[in-house]
Amino acid sequence: MSSTSLVELRVLEGPNLYFPRAAIKLTLDIGVLAAASEGNAARFARRIGLRGARPGAPDSGFRQRFAARAVARLVRAVASESGTARLAVRVRPTSDPHRLVVAYPWRHRERAQVMGRAVAEVLDALPGADIEDAVSRAAERVAAAEPGAAPHTITPRVPVVAVTGTNGKTTTSRMIAHIGRTWGKLVGWSNTDGIYIDGEMVEAGDYSGPSGAGRVLAHEQVELAVTETARGGILLKGIGLTRNDVSVVTNVSADHLGHQGIDTVDQLAEVKSVVPQITRKDGWAVLNADDPRVLAMRGVIKAQPWVFSRDPDSPAIREVLTAGGRATTVIDGWVAVLTPQADSDPLVELVDVPMTLAGLSRFNVENTLAAASAALAIGIPRDVVVEGLRTFRPDAEHNPGRMNFYSIGEVSVVIDLAHNEAGLEALLEIMNGVRRPDARLLLALGVVGDRQDDLIQKLGEIGARDSDVMVIAHKERYLRGRPVEELDGLMRAGAERVGVTEVVSYPTEVAGLEALVDQAKPGDVVGLMCHAEREAVYAWLAEHGGVPDSPETLAAKVRQASVGAGAT
């Protein structure tokens, strides 16, 4: 018989939002408990050991608080009566007052799931008169269940660098992997594109969850693992590793809100903090000192803090150095490492790091600081780190889909994922940085269908406000159940906020790119938010004379744009 109180039972195989080890996550509908008479609720409370509890009136705020305590106590009571003493339980509210999330660690997969279902069936029994017997029957079911398998969480045999954050984690993880290979190590890394072993993709797909880390570490020849760890993997499956040696948190901003119970940026930051929380005590947590939510993670980590900031005078740097930590920053145009009671160590000039686009890209300066910090923290020699930073390029070979620059005659084309507000603003910042005087910015805007309506509208507003020509280029593979017409309407509504009413829509990214390149004039910059058709876009560019920009070409474009800006 299925339970009406059990909304979802999810098995988390490794460290997660609730515990640093495998856990069961239950989403429970507590409507029955919320609506139960005060007498029934009080009888239920006595049965599970809350003898002095006052349930309050049905469907009151007092009853909701009682329900959170009672559900946690119910889980412990069933566990105790079935033979498991001192079970840790976490209860969290959701945006729905009649739903709670309950989590508890597990060692035996089948028995732990049986307990989750049994707890929900006790709640189902609340309207009846046999609530005392319902708890006893639940405990008996759990005691009689087959134990099942143990968690599959992997204890790494090689050093692991784990990278998380809202923006920049793919670029940062690729940079760290490149530096590791420059060191001569066989590096395995996993990210949103796939599994890579020694620079070769062995499997395509989104492997930013626990299966990606597991696949990398299962390769016997891997000497260094770099794992990209996304929000979804942490929430839906848990982290596949018991620990990491170095963690990186790039930043936290609004993205994927409204999914899996994460409705605010603060909640999202809590999810991301799971990664540095499982960093070894003698390892390093590399944190963005310019992001208050990331910097606050110092309060929950056991590892040593290593912060990075574009501002060498950041108070956070002083605090961390005073506490014995380390920092990486920019001093007089150089990437510099700071250690307590020592002179700064300038590593490399930003203009010599291709990913920073001659220092123009604020986000990629931060990614460079993060990657340099992590590489040094994992033990890669200083000269190797410098060489790796100098040789990693923003092109389709080193960093596909992220700030890839091309020239078609005298027109510049920039290809970037730019999947949220911060990413789009970074793309437009870069486009402006290479625009000649009096030239235009032409933007092909596209969104993924599982974003919130207000975010999609905001992307339309930013794109229309900050470009001279904007078109919509849809991502058919990423509509996520939304009609094209609905997405069109939301992006157009955002554009209308800034007075742009005529926005042409194209069915694909390639079609949008082609339309903009056709109308571009010498010196114009075309930007494409590219997600669904990256390989097709590269092929189109090659067929139409697109040439990848070398670091020297990019630097020349930046200089030409800055000279023109100074003249005006």
Automatic annotation (TrEMBL):
Domain Mur ligase C-terminal positions: 401-528
InterPro entries in the cross-refs: Mur-like_cat_sf, Mur_ligase_C, Mur_ligase_C_dom_sf, Mur_ligase_cen
Transmembrane domains' residue ranges: none
Domain of life: Bacteria
UniProt domain Mur ligase central: residue ranges: 163-375
SUPFAM superfamilies (alphabetical): MurD-like peptide ligases, catalytic domain (SSF53623), MurD-like peptide ligases, peptide-binding domain (SSF53244)
Record's protein name: Mur ligase
